[in-house]
Amino acid sequence: MPISVLVVGASGTQGSAIIRALTTLNKSRSNNPITIHALIRSTSSPPQSLNTDSNVKLFTGDFDDISSLKAAATGCTAAFLNVTPVFTDLTAEARHARNLVEACASIASLKRFVFSPGAVLHRPADDIVWSEYIDKSPQKWMSIYTKSKQACETAVTSSSTTNFEEGWCMVRATAFLTNFLPPVSKFMYPDLETKGIISAALREDLQISYLDPEDLGPLVARQLICDKEEWETRWKGNFVPVAKENLTLGQSVEKMNAVLGRHGVKERVEVVWIGEEEARTKG
């Protein structure tokens, strides 16, 4: 049976890693290649990585334009869905998740989907550090961010087998090691490349789950194309936490500096802890 997969956010960290994994699988599937519908914002200058496989078809779309999402999903058998926060509209992320689920639900051939909310929401109820953000400080940015992620997950879990014959799977990947490298670092840590400084408003003892995008890509690719038996026994309806290592930001920097030292680099990275108001000012 022909397999066609929709990958949302195809030029982003997660989407591009999944497409690389799928195109790698295609090298051994010459008789039955996977068709990949890569959804991006603009085709004027698509990433070179999307032009390496003739089975990758580019689609442009806007998460607030359901018709464009339906066009990208048409003919697909599975989908990878991923949304990101919109800092100028805190309601947008959950709305985009609902729009994506609605668009995919309208495609009869699309039987299953994998969703990545991009945040760890499986913290234990007695996690004191985490509860400070969620329960004790509901107006803090981290609390607002997490509630948005929870609304995204609700959009997924409320979909039924009436909409998707084989259901859904949730992969929970929090932070990527590539966030410390350009181009993402220029946005997340603007002083890292030039000054060796990471400014952070998190609690110093908050552990973050890190992984490499190349660990996520093959996993999701497998979930999207595996046979029905594997899907139903291992993935369907499951929340799958994905992480390489749990570290505080300080511990992450210690590891960076250890590597720099081994390579003879004298400069060191440091964390500067700032308040939330200063963080807002820095953007």
UniProtKB/TrEMBL annotation:
A molecular function GO annotation: oxidoreductase activity
A cellular component annotation (GO) from this entry: nucleus
Keywords per UniProt: NADP, Oxidoreductase
NmrA-like domain residues: 5-270
Superkingdom, taxonomy of origin: Eukaryota
InterPro entries in the record: NAD(P)-bd_dom_sf, NmrA-like, NmrA-like_oxidored
Keyword Cell inner membrane in annotation: no
SUPFAM superfamilies: NAD(P)-binding Rossmann-fold domains
PANTHER family: NITROGEN METABOLITE REPRESSION PROTEIN NMRA FAMILY MEMBER (PTHR42748), NMRA-LIKE DOMAIN-CONTAINING PROTEIN (PTHR42748:SF30)
Assigned protein family: Belongs to the NmrA-type oxidoreductase family.
Name the UniProt record assigns to this protein: NmrA-like domain-containing protein
